[in-house]
């Protein structure tokens, strides 16, 4: 089922024109709209469903620097700067709390991965430090097991996914952006080899500049334009409790379970190392692109074939822009959570923290994570289509990095001085990219 997400009242009027049209109202698209609108750029943000309705409200809620790919570290540093002042900047609380996030290692191999991250932490000035066995035990008081050690970055934190993207979108509206919900974009109009307009279900917006921040939908939309974007989706299952023992003020990750304290007093809980990948036609289309990461992650990914595979075989590559499309047929991706994965996480959580045994599970849900072959996002222009830009493929890292990614995407779109070097996020770096 879909978890709660704070409502955003749609702008009433479809603008006739905009300097920039953003497709997708997750935290990346909302942040880009906010940063652009504050610069005086006229922006139209088009979301086929509700703001933050997909993975932006379905993630764990970590705002973390530690454990990231080194390419992302400058961008998460910018994001953390924004998270720290967001309540003041937006005028409303999005649940951000600077609490640290503890990573705990089950064995020496786990500690080795934490140790390998430390040179990157030092290079980028993070306050990350390794934890001894004793310190790891103190991170989860009352745990019925001994950890090999751990890692923590005290300046990391947590926020509420249900609140963040909607609050940023509302701030974008107040800054002058048109935020249009239940307004699917069907495609683009072109003139002289360049974008001339965005065709929505409510009409056409004249523009020469488009930012696609479509999450799990990005590859499909790109394909309709003749652009090959190697991207697959991973299904992540999550649950929340009604109340629970106060074992962490922030977040704690272990190989078997992950948890985060919530503003409502409960906990968000997921499996620490297991997700599902639904096999689709794209799984074969991009098999060679994803083969290296699949070799590394096969133990933590369960492959499943079912209805989505059959649906993908029927999916058209192009479609008419004067009739409803798949984007209107499926307003919000709302996959079923994988019961076995959540049951395994709960068993391990209760085995380690017995005080959870009688805590009520209030809700379960799942979401589709947009992933790239190297698990690093794409924030990039598309060479074959002047005026078209992409911000997608955040590979499960998008919530925490969202504010900085939105700012960078906006700067790339308008050719402003970027807050960080965008080169590591170029579309051209991906082996199978074409367009």
Automatic annotation (TrEMBL):
* Span of domain FAD dependent oxidoreductase: 19-410
What are the UniProt keywords, alphabetically?
Answer: Oxidoreductase
* Top-level taxon of the source organism: Bacteria
SUPFAM superfamilies for this protein: FAD/NAD(P)-binding domain
InterPro entries documented for this protein: FAD-dep_OxRdtase, FAD/NAD-bd_sf
Single GO term (MF): D-amino-acid dehydrogenase activity
| Record GO biological process | D-alanine catabolic process
UniProt GO cellular component terms: cytoplasm; plasma membrane
- Which family does the entry's similarity section mention? Belongs to the DadA oxidoreductase family.
Q: What is this protein called?
A: Glycine/D-amino acid oxidase-like deaminating enzyme
Upper lineage ranks?
Answer: Bacteria, Pseudomonadati, Pseudomonadota, Alphaproteobacteria, Hyphomicrobiales
């Amino acid at each position: 089922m879909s978890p709660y997400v704070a409502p955003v009242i749609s702008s009433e009027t479809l603008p006739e024109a905009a300097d920039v049209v953003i497709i997708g109202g997750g935290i990346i698209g909302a942040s880009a709209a906010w940063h652009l609108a504050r610069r005086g750029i006229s922006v139209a943000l088009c979301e086929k469903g509700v703001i933050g309705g997909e993975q932006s409200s379905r993630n764990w809620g970590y705002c973390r620097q530690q454990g990231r790919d080194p390419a992302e570290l400058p961008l998460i540093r910018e994001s953390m700067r924004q998270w720290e002042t967001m309540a003041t900047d937006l005028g409303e609380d999005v649940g951000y709390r600077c609490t640290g996030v503890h990573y705990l290692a089950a064995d020496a191999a786990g500690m080795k991965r934490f140790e390998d991250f430390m040179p990157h932490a030092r290079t980028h000035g993070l306050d990350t430090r390794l934890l001894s066995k004793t310190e790891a035990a103190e991170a989860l008081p009352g745990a019925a097991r001994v950890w090999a050690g751990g890692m923590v970055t005290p300046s990391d934190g947590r926020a509420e996914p249900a609140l963040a993207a909607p609050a940023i979108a509302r701030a974008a509206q107040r800054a002058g952006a048109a935020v249009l919900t239940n307004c699917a974009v069907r495609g683009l109009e072109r003139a002289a080899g360049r974008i001339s307009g965005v065709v929505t279900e409510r009409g056409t917006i004249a523009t020469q500049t488009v930012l696609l921040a479509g999450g799990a939908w990005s590859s499909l939309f790109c394909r309709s334009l003749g652009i090959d974007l190697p991207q697959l989706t991973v299904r992540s299952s999550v649950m929340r409790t009604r109340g629970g023992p106060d074992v962490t003020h922030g977040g704690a990750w272990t190989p078997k379970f992950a948890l985060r304290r919530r503003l409502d007093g409960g906990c968000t809980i997921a499996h620490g190392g297991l997700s599902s990948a639904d096999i689709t036609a794209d799984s074969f289309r991009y098999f060679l692109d994803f083969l290296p990461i699949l070799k590394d992650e096969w133990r933590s990914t369960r492959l499943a074939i079912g209805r989505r595979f059959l649906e993908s075989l029927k999916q058209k590559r192009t479609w008419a822009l004067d009739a409803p499309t798949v984007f209107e047929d499926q307003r919000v991706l709302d996959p079923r959570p994988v019961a076995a994965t959540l049951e395994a996480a709960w068993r391990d959580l209760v085995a380690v923290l017995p005080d959870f045994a009688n805590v009520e599970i209030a809700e379960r849900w799942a979401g589709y994570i947009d992933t790239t072959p190297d698990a690093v996002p794409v924030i990039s222009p598309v060479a074959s289509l002047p005026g078209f830009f992409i911000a997608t493929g955040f590979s499960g890292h998008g919530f925490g990095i969202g504010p900085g990614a939105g700012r960078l995407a906006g700067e790339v779109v308008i050719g402003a001085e970027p807050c960080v070097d965008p080169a590591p996020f170029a579309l051209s770096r991906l082996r199978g990219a074409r367009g």
